[in-house]
Write a structure and sequence with these properties.
The complex is a heterodimer. By secondary structure, chain A is mainly alpha-helical. Chain A is built from 3 helices and 2 strands; from the N terminus they run H-H-H-E-E. Chain A has a domain of about 40 residues. The longest helix of chain A has 15 residues. By secondary structure, chain B is α/β, with parallel strands linked by helices. Chain B has an 11-stranded mixed sheet, sandwiched between helices. In chain B, a hairpin with a 5-residue loop joins strand 10 and strand 11. Classes of the chains: A mainly alpha, B alpha/beta. Chain B: This is Glutamyl-tRNA(Gln) amidotransferase subunit A. Chain B: Keywords: ATP-binding, Ligase, Nucleotide-binding, Protein biosynthesis.
């Protein structure tokens, strides 16, 4: 399975990372190196083997479904690049 | 007058309790050592005022008696841990300026026990790397050098700053995190001890997430006793991490008897890699002899799926990273790109992430995106999770045969030069974790102990892998190995 430039561009788009056109060939080559390495997994017989969900078999702890915190709008917004009137501000999303 | 920076945690604790020294004196000594060691680039955010404030409080507690073991002991915290009001960037430009409004559970537990944070430590960006060369702060430098050669060496990664700081006596101990070997490999490269506990022992809450099913925090210390002391302070159930286990935390230090008579130590044949340097082979053989001489029974074992651990890791870890790092979008914290006229929210995401993430992080996020994408999920991600099941079963089988611990090399080489791997393809760098990554995939505890030096005088470490939740027994085996190896070498001070 070889990755070409258009696949590399598609993956960059899905990952929401801007990659300039002229950087795509090198990126595709790097993907191919990593995927070539991963291909070894095809040698393993995994017939009937369950995919691992949790490395430690444990029943997740339960707790009462109650509010445990809140009321900290200032703290939540304190690190925002752009916060206005108690909200996170972003470029216009809906026309 | 003793050089206070050379003390172990245990020695410093005893001196504090005996009234031979105060936490303020200790802290001031380390703050000076840190300021003199900027050449190592280990501490990237220094917190001297906070440290002295905590040291004063610790002295009061110690004077009142009944202070916990860690009380008054100056330590460093890896930049991956969120620390309230103190920059916590995971060594990434995308978290530039981020000052958490909260404290990670582990750093909170250490603070509650009276430990004194001296500052934040360098690391690979988002803990992705094996040489500390992907950090936005620049490389951390290994205090060790090859003989008289002054070429700068890597302290390993991703916990490179932690390793460098402990080895150079800039703090008594440090926190690290380990997703594929990020505590054990740098510990081996710098001649110190590092333990990754069983997955679930330490809370991940407030630790910047890389690959959530693999990440575990642990201590990096000068010796095994210190690892036991600090690990105990870090472990314990946390409601805020649903994967943190609700098990009693034993007194690990009290379990260090050094008596390993009758213990079964497994030597896995699959770890004897082609092209393994003779020095590593000898180190491993010597370590085996030491454990045998201490009364352990040596058993040849097989972990047949070892070869597939790294490829499985390089599917699972990037997949989880691509999901975890989706949160860095320029909206809630950290960097946001300057937008051009007409740019919408998609351009904001794309430009922000292109500017904020370094090259290795971008590559892993994109590889993760690819293996999780429609049409490839089964072929890559599900297959890797099946192989992971088989890797864990390999370990379960040998433990069922009565094996108590497994001895392997910690790394395939000694520390290499910074920049030496720049032109190599990424796989070459990934091979650094070949002996450590299986342990993360199986969720087991693993410890790296320095046991020798190579022909150029660089430290080398061995790894012991234990049964799940039996860190106490593992630490005791490591203690016996440490006693037998008698590793005392220290780097010459050049910085």
């Amino acid at each position: 399975m070889s990755i070409d430039e258009s696949t590399a561009a598609k993956v960059a788009k899905l990952a929401r990372i801007k990659v300039e056109e002229d950087a795509l060939p090198a990126l595709a080559q790097e993907f191919n190196a990593v995927l070539g390495f991963i291909e070894q997994l095809n040698e393993v017989d995994v017939e009937g083997v369950e995919p691992m969900v949790s490395v430690t078999p444990m029943r997740l702890k339960r707790r009462k479904d109650v509010v445990t915190d809140g009321d900290q709008q200032d703290k939540i917004l304190s690190n925002a690049p752009d916060a206005r009137e108690g909200f996170f501000a972003v470029p216009k999303v809906v026309e | 007058m003793t050089d206070l920076t050379k003390l172990t945690l245990a020695e410093a604790r005893d001196k504090l309790r005996a009234g031979d020294v105060t936490s303020v004196e200790l802290t001031e000594t380390f703050l000076k050592a840190i300021d003199d060691a900027d050449a190592l680039n280990a501490f990237v955010h220094k917190t001297p005022e906070l440290a002295l404030e905590r040291a004063k409080a610790a002295d009061v507690r110690i004077a009142q008696g009944d202070a916990p073991d860690m009380c008054g002991l100056p330590i460093g915290i890896k930049d991956l841990f969120c620390t309230k009001g103190v920059p916590s960037q995971a060594a990434s430009a995308i978290l530039e300026g981020f000052k958490p409004e909260y404290e990670s559970t582990i750093s909170q537990k250490l603070e509650d026990s009276g430990a004194v944070m001296l500052g934040k430590l360098n690391m690979d960006e988002f803990a992705m790397g094996s040489s500390n060369e992907t950090s936005v702060y620049g490389n951390a430098i290994n205090p060790w050098r090859r003989g008289n050669d002054d070429a700068a060496l890597t302290p390993g990664g991703s916990s490179g700053g932690s390793a460098s700081a402990v080895a150079a006596d800039l703090c008594l101990a440090a926190t690290g995190t380990d997703t594929g070997g990020s505590i054990r490999q740098p510990a081996a490269f710098t001649g110190i001890t590092g333990i990754k506990p069983t997955y679930g022992r330490c809370s991940r809450w407030g630790v910047v997430a890389f690959a959530s099913s693999l990440d575990q925090a642990g201590p990096m210390t000068k010796d095994v006793r210190d690892a036991a002391i600090m690990l105990e302070a870090m472990c314990g159930h946390d409601e805020k991490d649903s994967t943190s286990v609700d098990l009693a935390v034993p007194n690990f230090e009290a379990m260090l008897t050094g008596d390993i008579r009758g213990k079964k130590i497994g030597i896995p044949k699959e770890y004897r890699m082609d092209g393994m340097p003779a020095e590593i082979e000898k180190l491993w053989a010597d370590g085996t002899e030491m454990l045998k001489a201490a009364g352990a029974e040596i058993v040849d074992i097989s972990l047949p799926h070892t070869k597939y651990a790294l490829p499985a890791y390089y599917v699972i870890a990037p997949a989880e990273a691509s999901s975890n790092l989706a949160r860095y979008d320029g909206v809630r914290y950290g960097h946001r790109a300057t937008l051009a006229a007409g740019d919408g929210i998609t351009e904001m995401y794309e430009k922000t992430r292109a500017e904020g993430f370094g090259h290795e992080v971008q590559r892993r996020v994109m590889v993760g995106t690819y293996v999780l994408s429609a049409g490839f999920y089964d072929a890559y991600y599900n297959r890797a999770r099946r192989v992971r099941t088989l890797i864990k079963q390999d370990f379960e089988n040998v433990f069922a045969q009565g094996i108590d611990a497994i001895l392997t090399p910690a790394t395939p080489s000694a520390a290499f030069g910074l920049g030496e791997m720049t032109d190599a393809d990424p796989i070459q760098m990934y091979l650094n974790d070949v002996f450590t990554v299986t342990v993360n995939l199986a969720g087991l505890p693993g410890i790296s102990v320095p046991t020798g030096v190579d022909s150029q005088g660089l430290p080398l470490g061995l790894q012991l892998i234990g049964r799940p939740w039996e860190e106490g027994d593992l630490l005791n085996t490591a203690y016996a190995l440490e006693q037998a190896a008698g590793f005392v070498a220290k780097p010459g001070k050049w910085w």
